[in-house]
Amino acid sequence: MEKKLEECKWLIKKKSIEFSLVSEEMGIIKGKIVFVNNYSLDFRELVSAEHTGYRFQFMNGDNRLIKRWDSAPHHKEIASFPFHLHTPEGVMECDNVNLIEVIVSIEVALSKEESA
What we know:
Structural class: alpha+beta
Strand order of the largest sheet: 1-2-3-4-5-6-7
Mean pLDDT: 92
Shape: globular
Largest sheet: 7 strands, antiparallel
């Protein structure tokens, strides 16, 4: 993850990241990244070989939701349950993701915005 953040540091205004161990096999990473356009990513991810749990909330500069990747066990109607994506248009299917994949997705989106 540190390597990915270093690769896209040109997009990052500030970051606050905490790592904590729950057990020898499980850890939690949480924090906030503010990007140069004042968009932000608040996140919490449970990291373990056997468990997956996360919330990655990507907001614009006015604190309006752009996307939230979520593994909370609701929205059982979604085929990818428990994994789903919240957008301003509603809830949709989403693959299981991790922090690096979300950062890559945001990097691509912000790069397109920069070149527009």
